[in-house]
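Key result, reporting period 2: structure in, sequence out.
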């Protein structure tokens, strides 16, 4: 996924029949500033936006996240029961997530043996 400048994001949104808004641009910029492996929930993102002085409802945050997932800019991850998180859809090697059941902290890791198990299971399943 190639990341979009503000102007390219505007053009892409317009081409798909959506308006480019400062809030949508701000959401994408927040994800672009995250370190690789960091994830945000809608609630986390909403809090960051409010702390930055944005007046935006949580429902607008959810709609914006769903739109950006649909456009392929973000990736939606269900890391724990009922807890969806989002990350920038950047080209990554296969990676995995471990979620603490006590505090919901998510750790991202790369382990080739996990990928090999998945490949063997897929081949055995046809």
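The corresponding designed sequence is given below.
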């Amino acid at each position: 996924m190639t990341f979009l400048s503000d102007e390219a994001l505007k053009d892409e949104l317009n081409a798909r029949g959506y308006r480019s808004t400062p809030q949508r641009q701000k959401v994408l910029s927040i994800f672009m500033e995250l370190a690789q492996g960091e994830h945000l929930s809608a609630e986390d993102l909403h809090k960051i936006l409010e702390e930055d002085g944005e007046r935006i409802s949580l429902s607008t945050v959810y709609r914006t996240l769903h739109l950006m997932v649909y456009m392929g800019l973000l990736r939606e991850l269900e890391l724990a029961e009922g807890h969806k998180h989002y990350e920038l859809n950047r080209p990554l090697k296969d990676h995995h997530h471990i979620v603490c059941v006590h505090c919901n902290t998510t750790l991202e890791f790369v382990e080739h043996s996990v990928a090999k198990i998945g490949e063997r299971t897929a081949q055995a399943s046809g």
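The beta strands are 74-80, 83-88, 96-99, 106-109. Helices lie at 6-15, 22-33, 42-51, 58-70, 112-125. This case is discussed further under Risks and Mitigation.
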